[in-house]
Amino acid sequence: MDVQVVEKNEIKVVGISWNGTYAQTNSIPEIFTEMEARINEVANQTRESVLIAPFHSRETEFTYYVTTPVEKIEDVPEGMIGFTIPRKNYVFATHKGRSEEVENTYLQMFKWMKEYGYELDQHALSLEIYKEEHKPFNSTGHLHYDIYLPVKKYKEI
């Protein structure tokens, strides 16, 4: 797995939020289905064919969003939320494999971060980015998406 540090510019997004325990994560695919059904309600979408899933991870629960990037946040549809993800440095990798292997991908990224002296920024959003061209793989359970873990400080390696 190729891991690297990247900087992502500010991203404006509109989408659906979900909050729950780790035991409830099996309901997350439903949020993707709902967002895909309602995506045309979102005004000012960019030309990127992606779904961005920012999330806050906490000890006992987490908040997960399924969003689409927008040029500007206005006329947010009922039941959705709009917000800006600030410019940030991230440890980046791509997960390719079964859903059961996702945890291992994250563990490898955390190991890499520790080895190279990076610290996860607990106050920033982590991102999962799902590209339209990978949708056929993802629908079969063979997932293919990009993971961005926010870091506190950029270090040259």
TrEMBL record:
Signal peptide as annotated in the record: none
InterPro entries, alphabetized: AraC_E-bd, GyrI-like, Reg_factor_effector_dom_sf, YobU-like_regulator
Every AraC effector-binding domain range: 1-152
Source organism, top-level taxon: Bacteria
Protein name: Transcriptional regulator YdeE
